[in-house]
Each structure stands twice: as structure tokens, then as C-alpha cells.
Design goal:
- Strands 3-2-1-4-5-6 form a 6-stranded parallel sheet, sandwiched between helices.
- The chain has 2 domains: 6-16 and 101-233, HAD superfamily/HAD-like (Rossmann fold); 19-97, DNA polymerase, domain 1, CATH 1.10.150.
- The chain has helices at 19-32, 39-57, 61-76, 82-97, 106-113, 127-137, 154-163, 178-188, 225-233, and strands spanning 6-9, 118-124, 145-149, 171-175, 191-194, 216-218.
- The chain has 9 helices and 6 strands, in the order βαααααβαβαβαββα.
- The longest helix is centred in the first third of the chain and has 19 residues, at 39-57.
- The model has no long low-confidence stretch (mean pLDDT 94).
- The protein binds magnesium ion.
- The site of magnesium ion has 7 residues, from loops.
Length: 234
């Protein structure tokens, strides 16, 4: 398979840390309700609210914050004080304003791969938040093209592939979410490389594709990517 032209990367928890900040906010949210509900119960209820709101609010820290407030009011009822709302708002704000921390070996990997391939970043989430993270990460110089989209499904991947003027067989997608980064491009006939992250949002879980057809790979860390791409393309 020597025809690969474009390597696309997910951003959150593939290039930089993300989910740990949401988990921290969830903990602070659950703490505000701890006198009435066990921690896990509040977190499960929050997830239920997020899923209900996904179609209207989309992904990202702002919708997450709105869902925290909605869940706080639903569970806490008349016991909710302005202080509690403030705590939850601050927790959401921290998700948006945290310092961007690239994962190990990301920059050197991109700097090697960008010499032989067109690199693309494909992410979902809040437009402004993702743009700021990309700028702060210092990684934007390695990418030929950036897509910040509302859902990573087959239609969106096909649109990006068409936009790039290539075929699915010439496209590799790298990411930490089976549901968003791996399954849709794989089903389109592209190559998908899965790099699991210790913290991945439960909404992003899915079954792994069959390994044996040569278009799905799983590696432990991004530092293994250059070697794998070399094997795939030679
Ligand atoms: Mg991700």
C-alpha cells in the first residue's frame, strides 16, 4: 500500500491532553452534590444530560458546562445555592482555559511525517476552544489543513476526503476514539490507526474492527507511528 497521501489526526487525547480536564470538572460538580448523592450517581446523571443535549448543544466544554448546571438544578432542586452554580461554572471555565499540554513525542512525530505526507487535523468540539488550543500547542505549522466539525461520521470523513481531492485508500486517520476516529474512516475504505488513551470519554467507546485486513492498526503511543507508517507505505 504505497499510495498514502494524507495522514489525518484527531486532536483531543491524541495530540494533547483533554479528557483529564473534563474528569476534574466532573469531580468538582459531583462534590457540590455529595451531601445528597453518591459521586458516581451524579456523574452518571450528568452523562445522561449530556447525551440528551448532544443534538442541540453539540460537543465541547460549553455544552458540558450547560449540562452540569442543568443536572445540578435537577438533582439539587431547591437546595441549590448561587455558590454551587458558581462552583460548577468555575469548573467548566477551567476546562476551557487550562494550559495546552501536548502528549509525549507528538511534535517530533509530526515534524517527521510532514516531510512526506500532507497532514490534516480533524476534531470536534467548540470552534473557539479548539482554535485556541491549536494555536497554543504550537503544532499548527505542521498541518496543511484543519477541520473543526460538529460530528465525526462517515459523511463528514467522505466530505473531507473529497475536499482533499484524494480517495479513501490514500487517507490514514489516527486517533484515540474508536467511535469517532477509527470506525467511520475504516468503513469508508481508509486506513485507521488507533492509539488508546488512558482517559477516553465513555461516549467514544466502540468495538475494534478486525485487525487482519491490513487497514486497521493499534499502537501504544504516537512514538510508534513513524515506524508503522513506514511499514504501511513500503
Ligand atoms: Mg480524541
Amino acid at each position: 500500500m504505497g499510495e498514502i497521501k494524507v495522514i489525518a489526526f484527531d486532536a483531543d487525547d491524541t495530540l494533547w491532553e483533554n479528557e483529564i480536564y473534563f474528569k476534574e470538572a466532573e469531580d468538582r460538580f459531583a462534590e457540590t452534590l455529595i451531601q445528597w448523592y453518591p459521586k458516581q450517581y451524579s456523574i452518571d446523571e450528568l452523562f445522561r444530560t449530556e447525551m440528551k443535549n448532544l443534538g442541540a448543544y453539540g460537543y465541547g466544554a460549553k455544552s458540558f458546562t450547560l449540562s452540569m448546571i442543568e443536572t445540578l438544578l435537577r438533582l439539587g432542586g431547591d437546595n441549590v445555592t448561587p455558590e454551587m452554580v458558581k462552583t460548577v461554572l468555575n469548573a467548566g471555565d477551567k476546562v476551557i482555559t487550562h494550559k495546552v499540554e501536548c502528549l509525549p513525542n507528538v511534535e517530533e512525530t509530526l515534524s517527521i511525517l510532514c516531510k512526506s505526507f500532507k497532514l490534516v487535523m480533524i476534531t470536534k468540539g467548540d470552534l473557539l476552544h479548539q482554535q485556541r488550543k491549536l494555536k497554543e500547542s504550537g503544532l499548527s505549522c505542521y498541518f496543511d489543513h484543519i477541520e473543526i466539525i460538529s460530528e465525526k461520521d462517515k459523511n463528514e470523513y467522505q466530505r473531507v476526503i473529497n475536499l482533499l481531492g484524494i480517495s479513501a485508500a490514500e487517507f490514514i486517520m489516527v486517533g484515540n476514539s474508536l467511535k469517532s476516529d477509527i470506525i467511520p474512516p475504516f468503513e469508508l475504505g481508509a486506513t485507521a490507526i488507533y492509539i488508546p488513551h488512558d482517559h477516553t470519554w465513555q461516549h467514544e467507546h466502540s468495538e475494534e474492527p478486525e485487525m487482519k485486513n491490513g487497514r486497521y492498526y493499534k499502537i501504544n503511543a504516537i512514538k510508534e507511528l513513524v515506524n508503522l507508517i513506514h511499514q504501511i507505505t513500503h
